[in-house]
């Protein structure tokens, strides 16, 4: 049994078809525009109807004016004259020949002067307004002047008649036009509406419904937009919405995994701190030892324990919000690089390490955060070399430093297999930037966030079968202090 639509979906459909909805507005607009288009055709049709109606009377009057020329002795009886005038629907017929106007027939002279309707060539605006002037006029007699068709020798022919019959004919024709225009406009409006609704409104409605369902429940598979394969703007909107939904789902999954990571770290943080506290107590007892080997290794052990405690807290903070703000200071890069390489186990079996950093080279950075960045980069380079299939010979990791535009540029390069193309776009995304199943994909994401926190950046510069180069840019380029040599005192 089909699931009943939710109240939100019912309200959504009601908004679509209610006067404020897109479908209702489209229907009203199409009908209105069709009516306007039809209304623009009414004045020319009315003008043509009136002109033809009057011309019919002119031809009948012109034909009646020929009766005296064919009658015996050119005399027409009163009875025949009345029949001719009534048949033509006029009261007076006159003809102008060579500038002389002659009255052919006359029934009754009008009580007042008739208004003139000249059917000879006239302005378009006058012809369009003439029918409405006749309809809205106060009535009476009209004097119609037109060019002759049967009497070639005449200058013009005219007749006088009442306009009541013309008014009735115009009014009836106007109502028929209005009915036809209204019917055609409504039909055309509905046809255009259903066509636009099929090709535009329904796809937009489907996109809007998918957006609302996705907002209500991003994890609902039914909220995924179904692509129609169209290549127009609607198809592009569907494709962009599909990509946006995929990106948002990936971001939500990453956020959920980060929340789970933070929760997991919170659970083990207490026990881990206890373990590290015990290790710190043991290191304090070792400090009392007079063994030179122990004394030499003890500072490194203490720094490693301090970093471990801070790292546990930082991972918890990362799972909740962001990294702590760095505290930049001038750091000698060579010792920092040696410590990071030792923690990243570089060099190691099958991996050589080359540092082109001078002993006096310095950078401006937070020491702990710089250590974490370098460890991540060196460890990733070592793991890329170790996991390269079919490799022959030892791999090589190289670190160099140069100054460019007032910034320090640290390059970490390796001759590994390169970054796979399928993960390059999401290389710095948490949990998504690693191609190895045993990696969490957090290292580069954390390293880049730490670099950007300094006002710099971490970027993939070069990658391919020949190897990979990462560039760490840090603001500021402190100069190395020159070594001062003290003169030997004279004995």
Overview of the structural elements:
The protein is 53% helix and 16% strand. By secondary structure, it is an alpha+beta fold. The model is unreliable at 1-5, 12-19 and 486-491 (pLDDT under 50). A 5-stranded mixed sheet has the order 2-1-5-4-3. A 5-stranded mixed sheet has the order 7-9-10-12-11, covered by helices on one side. A two-stranded antiparallel ribbon has the order 6-8. It folds into 3 domains: 25-184, no CATH class; 250-321; 326-475, Heat Shock Protein 90 (2-Layer Sandwich). The chain starts with 6 loop residues before the first helix and ends in a 16-residue tail after the last strand. Helix 2 (22-65) crosses helix 5 (124-136), helix 6 (164-216) runs parallel beside helix 7 (233-287) and helix 7 (233-287) packs antiparallel against helix 8 (292-320). The chain has helices spanning 7-17, 22-65, 67-70, 78-88, 124-136, 164-216, 233-287, 292-320, 333-343, 367-386, 443-453, and strands at 92-97, 100-106, 115-118, 141-146, 154-162, 329-332, 351-355, 362-365, 395-404, 407-414, 457-464, 467-475.
